[in-house]
Known about the structure:
The chain is α+β, with helices and mostly antiparallel strands. The chain has one domain: Trna Endonuclease, Chain: A, domain 1. Helices cover 38% and strands 16% of the residues. It is built from 5 helices and 8 strands; from the N terminus they run αβαββαββββαβα. The strands form 3 sheets. The protein has a 4-stranded mixed β-sheet, sandwiched between helices. A two-stranded antiparallel ribbon has the order 3-4. A two-stranded antiparallel sheet has the order 6-7. Helix 1 packs parallel to helix 5 (142-154). The longest helix is centred in the first third of the chain and has 15 residues, at 5-19. The radius of gyration is 16 Å and the shape is globular.
Amino acid sequence: MTVNESIVQTQVADYLLLQYPDVLFHSDFGSSVGMTAQQGARKRRQNGGRRGWPDMVIAEAVEARPVFEDPYWNNVCRDWDCFFGLYIELKKDGETLYPGPRAKKRFQSKDGKEYKTEHLMEQADCLYDLRKRGYCAEFAIGFDEAKQIIDKYLGGPQQRKVEF
Length: 164
């Protein structure tokens, strides 16, 4: 069975419901649905005219700390006392973001990295803009990587203590 992006979204939603039942999240089901040109235009308008909005948001603020071993995140963590939420752009297993060495086209994002398609660059730009506003925002290739990002961000299901 081929696991497409829609299945990955469902797997991540199921994981969140099971391991983090108190966490509020939203998954953009419409991102993987074929739309007419008119429907696509309406959706973009409803999203502020932006393309590349991430598939999933977890509405849970956490203390800012290096979540990933990326030097970029060390700089982001210095700018904020907390992350206001987590955005994830989900991809199916095996998908590649970056162009190979022989790629004829390369699309440079605001984050300084090159992506293999214009759409991936737009998604990377959106993640970059969210980071600049105090959100943790990442690509995740497949369920396992998404689960790893969620657990690092939220501190793991067994370590959570929720106080209201």
